[in-house]
């Protein structure tokens, strides 16, 4: 017996932030192997440069749109003086998602969704939410739940620890030790409502060893991937958040064991002394679909 591939399969191991004001960085993105590019109009763009940054994105989307990589635009808060013009840009460029910064309550997302709907953005334009305020983390459950209410475009939560540290005054420490409970709260809320969740940026982009440790920690906490600030972080993030050879071999063994005729009516089987249930078959099938997705991308560069 075989089971259908879950759909849609998405892979979000690496989401590179690119300041929309930086033309040189924009030119580079086509040569980079990240799963998503977040074109930033918010904190990496000075107030007097917002217009120029929007023009850069207009030119980029017109001349060299991304292929096989999600395109996300992070706008300024809708309540800011830049928010509405950013939103109009999103409606005209139709990226894969709008990333809303500093989401503190479900209402922020509902307002963004209402504005997208009212301006005629197609349903393909999803919503991503930055979780980076104390209030946002405390409201993680209702924010994630808004996917089933007035913000059904919501697709993914992105943790922002720079802002969260600033507001809570928790200093950076090895292992992000005092932040872990809040991070897990965001992961749990995302999973309860079927959302993806992406770990925060790591600022010291030349410190590859600590970055790798942070990626491994993020993966073990259940994150799908990491928001990145520098091209050098892409490969380590793809490696850490992608399926390992051992995980692929295990998944193949599970699928093939359940495909045996004698397993057709069994919900639980024994694979080399390990209990394996159909829920593991679902996990294995999802993992193999992700492997397929990644391989296809490699063969269509
Ligand atoms: C941090 C940087 C300013 C460093 O840039 P630079 O000094 O140019 O570094 P390098 O000389 O090592 O760069 C080597 C080449 O790589 C290109 N580059 C660098 N960064 C990027 C990038 N993000 N995307 C594409 N290309 C990039 C350089 O142009 C060099 O190219 P070349 O000259 O051809 O060799 C810079 O990395 C940077 O600006 N990073 C992104 C900053 C950003 O987006 N900030 C916002 C996101 S952070 C966030 O969201 C925090 C969150 O909200 C929270 O609260 O936690
Ligand atoms: Mg931030």
UniProtKB/TrEMBL annotation:
Keywords: Lyase, Magnesium, Metal-binding
Record keyword Mitochondrion present: no
Pfam families associated with the record: HpcH_HpaI
Cofactor(s) required for function per UniProt: Mg(2+)
The organism's place on the tree of life at top rank: Bacteria
Gene Ontology MF terms: lyase activity
Residue stretches making up the HpcH/HpaI aldolase/citrate lyase domain: 13-231
InterPro entries in the cross-refs: Aldolase/citrate-lyase_domain, Citramalyl-CoA_lyase, Citrate_lyase_beta/mcl1/mcl2, Pyrv/PenolPyrv_kinase-like_dom, Pyrv_kinase-like_dom_sf
Keyword Magnesium: yes
Protein family (similarity comment): Belongs to the HpcH/HpaI aldolase family.
Protein name as it appears in the record: CoA ester lyase
Provenance organism: Rhizobium oryzicola
